[in-house]
Design a protein that fits this description.
An 8-stranded parallel beta sheet has the order 1-2-3-4-5-6-7-8. It is of the alpha/beta class. The chain has 10 helices and 8 strands. The chain has one domain (2-258): Alpha-Beta Barrel (TIM Barrel), CATH 3.20.20. It is 47% helix and 16% strand. The protein binds zinc ion.
């Protein structure tokens, strides 16, 4: 029984009909456990409903995504943080949280706000003993600094949609984080990530779809689906020269251990 370690089934772009189809297709392919990652307070409520509907198939992480922090003022983020502290006990992990330093998320004080609320969430994760689900784009050095200062290795977690070098991956491994790879690894031109995946031990890897985003190379549908985890597994198996089943089994076991 296999896992998709990160997705967004409750994203407003995904219809009820689509969700039903995804679940049916996934179960047919032995994919039966999904981590639904948090983005903002409204989304947490949808996640709670989905998890109630399919308690055996979904685990939740609740968190304030760097996009949410970048797009809202400090008072709104404070309020959301307060809400998070009240509902986090019912989640398996805290996230997505992290830093995204692309231009559109770093305007008008958003960089500093992202850092403050990332630090707050790391502290909350530690106080609640919840592993972290990290979203880090163009900000690995700063994110690693925060994790070290706040000693996040005591809770650890996963770096979702990792797309960087082995050197950076090794620093996360040292901080007790697993590396989760998705569609990006299927692109042949992505040599740096492929080299990293070749060297990262299978015990430290997770697979994800990040549905409905981050489709693998050559994906036919407009929206990515949880089934793309199978394409990711195939690529990782090819890189590591082991069987697809071994990749799926081991990464699923890693996931279950991390989010017990
Ligand atoms: Zn995500």
């Amino acid at each position: 029984m296999y896992c998709d370690c990160h997705g967004h089934w409750t994203d407003p772009r995904v219809t009820e009909e689509q969700r039903t189809q995804w679940l049916e297709d996934s179960l047919k392919n032995n994919l039966n456990l999904f981590m639904e990652a948090g983005v903002n307070p409204e989304g947490w409520q949808r996640q709670i409903l989905l998890q109630k509907q399919y308690p055996k198939n979904f685990k939740n992480a609740f968190g304030l995504h760097p996009y949410f922090v970048a797009e809202n003022d400090e008072a709104t983020c404070d309020e959301a943080m307060n809400e998070l502290s009240h509902i986090l006990h019912s989640a398996s992990g805290l996230g997505e949280t992290g830093l995204d330093f692309r231009e559109q998320y770093t305007q008008n004080g958003a960089t500093d706000r992202q850092i403050v609320f990332f630090e707050n969430q790391v502290q909350l994760a530690k106080a609640s003993s919840k592993p972290l689900v990290l979203h880090v784009v163009r900000a690995h050095n700063e994110a690693l600094r925060v994790l070290m200062v706040w000693e996040a290795d005591t809770v650890g977690g996963m770096v979702h949609a990792f797309n960087s070098s082995l050197e950076i991956a090794e620093q996360y491994l040292k901080m007790n984080f697993l590396i989760s790879v998705g569609g990006a690894v299927t692109f042949e031109k992505n040599k740096k990530l492929r080299e990293a995946v070749a060297a990262i031990p299978l015990e430290k890897l997770l697979l994800e779809s990040d549905c409905p985003d981050q489709a693998p190379e050559g994906w036919a549908d407009e929206q990515n689906s949880p089934l793309s985890v199978l394409s990711v597994a195939k690529t990782v198996a090819g890189i590591k020269q082991i069987s697809i089943e071994t990749v799926l089994e081991k990464t699923s076991e890693n996931f279950r251990k991390l989010f017990t």
